[in-house]
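Fold this complex.
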Amino acid sequence: MPELPEVEVVKRGLVQLRPQTPVLSTQVWTDKIVQGNLALLQGQVLEQVSRRAKYLILHFEKNDCLLHLRMTGQVILSQPNTHFSLPFTYYQKPLETPVDKHTHLGVHFEGLSLYYRDMRKFGRWEVLDKKELENHPSLVKLGIEPLTEAYQWPLFKRALLKSRRAIKALLLDQTVVSGLGNIYVDEALFRSGLHPLQSSATIPMAKMKRLFEVIPMALSEAIEAGGTTLKDYIHPDGTRGSHKENLLVYGRKGAPCYTCGHPIEKRVVAQRGTHFCAVCQVLI
DNA sequence: ACCTCGACCTGGGCGC
DNA sequence: TGCGCCCAGGTCGAGG
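Structure:
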């Protein structure tokens, strides 16, 4: 669900609407979501918002918050004295208040509140000292990240030649290439004509190069469309991403392949529902 | 090194 | 109407 493009769109929404005043107060309704002390943020200005792979980072003056939305996390903004309405939230039900049973914490600024909602409570907020962020174990082990300078063909090739694992499993592994999840792995494999079970090291060089190229393409096209909203994912202002309608294979089980017309198959690979065209993506 | 499974959670959708 | 079951998937840790 929230993969690199969705987190990037959330980041851009927060950058755009970022409050310029210090935090007035914080609220935590669900303790397990937060590691560290959210109240430390009180009095601090949110100076910057950044992203690393699927992690969102809120940079305050003295502390940083490291967020992961996991599957159903939503970061939303609301103005306390204005009527609140999200036309679409999880499962497309309208929400008339930012705080309901799925809202786990709030950060209040003057005239603006930031809330974290998460139906399945898998997401995490970590409140860190500035110096803890750089060497955070979750960040240091991330593999090369598409759409950054670190994403280079020699590194990508080396990583793929090192493993005989199924390419689907390898691309889902955040320590190899970071930021991809189930949706965009399926999309990238289709675009490069690779079977999800293809052993990584045995991929012909031309196809490996193609895979290297289509990954950032698939991701940046998704960002352009505001991300992929399947059910839960929304922007901080409550709008939805429209990339679902552009997906080539994910969620298209039984529908005709856009290239050859053969019905898209769905099988479990690497413990994930995996969509592919058995004609266009053959094992080599 | 790699694989599989369970855990974490909730709600939708299914069969009966 | 409702119960029980399975599914959705990001990440981690256990065990083979």
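Residues 205-224 of chain A form the longest helix (20 residues).
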